[in-house]
Specification:
Shape: globular
Strand content: over 45%
Order of helices and strands: EEEEEEEEEHEEEEEEEEEEEEEHH
Largest sheet: 11 strands, parallel
Length: 336
């Protein structure tokens, strides 16, 4: 991209309002921006595709199903400096106006490899070409992302049998205060991860607004429901941040960003992060079975200031307290 250019770098492949799209048995190399962008498409099938992008280049997503329906991406691999797959449905007022959700999307049998790199920086090479690159350090890529452009909604997504190597985050749910929209019926199953990660599972609600929508654009906060993680094994990875980072990074009330987040986890095993295991300020409902590290009420309460404390953890405390009272009552009656 030459100096002074205000647009994005070009995609390698882009399909617009297309039906019956098939991308099979090809290799995509060194894309300057997103590799495969499917915008407002229907019946998309990707199979046997190998994507290789520079590990120090950001915004080189492998596949971006955007406001598209009936999408199957399978038996493929990605190696690059950004998201392996990023599911989108429009940015703020434009996504809401289009009103076309990303729905009925299946991702399976993928290998996603990220860089051992850190925050993005902008600079010019000897020819004056502006490049976005990653500085050495921690990891900045993501395995599977939803958002941040999700104003049209994201529904009925299945992500299964994915292997991550040095992926900054296995799953990254992205939104912002001006996104709105809803995310529902999203299932992650049979995921494995090795290498270095920044965070295991993360919800980030700090993405910036679309300036073209104006100050009057103020949608309802994003609503997330029926988000599940089942059979996740990242015990062979190393996490530098939090294992589960579902907490707030801003001073405003969390419900002005995410109105609700309903989460189900079963047989999910992540290593304890260097900074801690859980932040759960956004979570309103949590059901966890055989999860490590375990979500502790005191740990979540520190970051949610009690008011946003996970409902399930509160309910668990009430049940334990009731069992204690019942046991004490039975012992007292037996002693009379």
């Amino acid at each position: 991209v030459e100096r002074g250019w205000n647009g994005t770098r070009p995609h390698l492949m882009r399909f617009v309002r297309s039906r019956g799209v098939r991308v099979m048995d090809v290799q995509l190399l060194n894309s300057p921006y997103w590799n495969c962008h499917f915008w407002a498409c229907d019946r998309v099938h990707v199979r046997g595709v190998r994507v290789v992008s520079p590990l120090d280049q950001v915004n080189t997503d492998g596949w971006d199903p955007d406001s598209s329906t009936n999408v199957l991406i399978e038996d493929s691999s990605y190696e690059g400096g950004d998201d392996c797959v990023s599911i989108k449905s429009g940015w703020d007022c434009f996504g809401a106006a289009l009103g076309r959700p990303a729905a009925n999307i299946t991702l399976r049998n993928l290998a996603c490899k990220g860089p051992r790199a850190g925050p993005a920086s902008l600079g010019a090479d000897r020819r004056g070409v502006i490049r976005a690159s990653l500085t050495p350090g921690s990891v900045n890529s993501t395995g599977i992302a939803i958002g941040s452009e999700l104003s049209g909604g994201v529904h009925d997504v299945l992500v299964e049998r994915i292997r991550f190597v040095d992926a900054g985050r296995m799953a990254h749910l992205k939104t912002g205060r001006t996104r709105g929209g809803a995310v529902s019926s999203v299932r992650f199953a049979n995921l494995t991860a090795v290498g270095r990660m920044d965070t295991g599972i993360v919800l980030d609600a700090t993405f910036k607004p679309n300036s073209k929508c104006g100050r009057g654009w103020a949608p309802r906060p994003t609503h997330m429901s029926d988000i599940s993680f089942v059979d996740i094994d990242a015990s062979g990875a190393a996490i530098s941040g939090y294992s589960f980072d579902l907490g707030a990074r801003h001073k405003e009330p969390v419900r002005s960003y995410v109105s609700a987040m309903e989460l189900f986890l079963k047989d999910v095993h992540l290593p304890r992060g260097t900074r801690g295991s859980w932040r759960c300020g956004y979570v309103t409902s949590l059901l966890a079975k055989r999860v490590s590290p375990k979500p502790r009420g005191d740990e979540c309460g520190v970051f949610t200031r009690r008011r946003g404390l996970n409902q399930s953890l509160r309910l668990g405390k009430v049940r334990r307290r009731n069992r204690t009272k019942a046991g004490r009552l039975r012992r007292n009656e037996a002693g009379r």
